[in-house]
Design brief:
Order of helices and strands of chain B: EHEEEEEEEEE
Order of helices and strands of chain A: EHEEHEEEHE
Largest sheet of chain A: 4 strands, antiparallel
Number of helices of chain B: 1
Largest sheet of chain B: 5 strands, antiparallel
Distance between the termini of chain B: 19 Å
Number of strands of chain A: 7
Helix content of chain B: under 10%
Structural class of chain A: alpha+beta
Radius of gyration of chain B: 14 Å
Helix content of chain A: 25-40%
Strand order of the largest sheet of chain A: 2-3-1-4
Strand content of chain A: 25-35%
Structural class of chain B: mainly beta
Number of helices of chain A: 3
Strand order of the largest sheet of chain B: 1-8-7-2-3
Oligomer: heterodimer
Chain lengths: ~140, ~140
């Protein structure tokens, strides 16, 4: 996959969700429901990461092909997500969304943004002496 | 070449020289035509620098939100702004707090989007959700 090829638009959408209901919700259930929702919202060409925070959840989605430069589309996604989270977590749930272009044209005549995604390097084998060297995930 | 920590970094990590969540850590975009990795390299700048200035295509500001959790070093994503220069193939992580800017890690493998051809626009970098590296 090359996110910097012509005509691709990659964007990152972050949602900070502060649920009204905070008890009795297994993290795995939340993760799978959120993943299902975002697959429908953004399509399968997406990477989702969710983590539990002291006051709720931080969800980040990197996706291809969405018109992130369009404020109307951003408002549509924000409204749809707020409703989804209210159904799941209660009507007083608060959702904050930020959207950022990662790669592609800003549609304003400036050069296109480009994207690099860095893998993690693990030193475990080197530390434990099983095999000298690093393993890239 | 595989992604790797510099041996001198490992050595001085054990000697309490590096403090990864309080030092200023930066990332540079590197043209591999002008820099060849060696695990023995230790200085990013200074008189005996190991990374030639010509190899450095872009430098970040201080990486924000550095954390160390269960042996994993992580930071927030970052952007090199308005980058122009040679086609680049690697990223170097370095410590701007220490004298002569000490080298930390070298990445040239498995980076989605590499090699990148600077076009005077921004280059956004997403750090792996599981951090830069784990010990």
């Amino acid at each position: 996959m090359n996110p910097n090829s012509a005509n691709q638009i990659w964007s990152k959408w972050s949602f900070h969700v502060r649920p009204e209901i905070r008890v009795g919700l297994p993290f795995e259930d939340v993760r799978s429901n959120v993943a299902r929702f975002f697959r429908k919202a953004f399509g399968s060409a997406s990477i989702m990461h969710i983590q539990q925070e002291p006051d709720g959840y931080l969800i980040e989605v990197i996706t291809e092909g969405q018109p992130v430069h369009d404020p109307n589309f951003q408002r549509y996604i924000e409204r749809s997500c707020a409703i989804f989270f209210q159904y799941g977590f209660g009507w007083n749930t608060e959702t904050e969304m930020t959207a950022k272009l990662l790669a592609g044209s800003r549609q304003d005549g400036t050069p296109a943004d480009q994207l690099l995604m860095v893998p993690r390097t693990e030193q475990t084998t080197a530390v434990w002496g099983v095999q000298h060297g690093e393993r890239t995930l | 070449m595989a992604n790797a920590l510099y041996n001198t970094y490992k050595q001085d990590l054990l000697n309490k020289v590096f403090d990864m969540d309080t030092d200023t850590i930066k990332a540079s975009l590197i043209d591999s035509a002008d820099y060849t990795f060696s695990a023995a390299h230790d200085e990013y700048s200074g008189g005996a620098r190991d990374v030639p200035a010509v190899a450095i295509v872009a430098e970040s500001g201080a990486l924000t939100s550095p954390t160390i959790v269960n042996g994993t070093f992580d930071t927030a994503d970052f952007t090199w702004t308005s980058v122009s220069g040679d086609v680049s193939e690697a990223i170097i992580l370095w410590d701007d707090t220490l004298t002569n800017d000490r080298l930390v890690a070298f990445y040239d493998t498995g980076i989605t989007g590499m090699p990148v051809t600077p076009n005077s626009g921004n280059i956004n970098v997403t750090v792996n959700a599981s951090g830069w590296f784990s010990l």
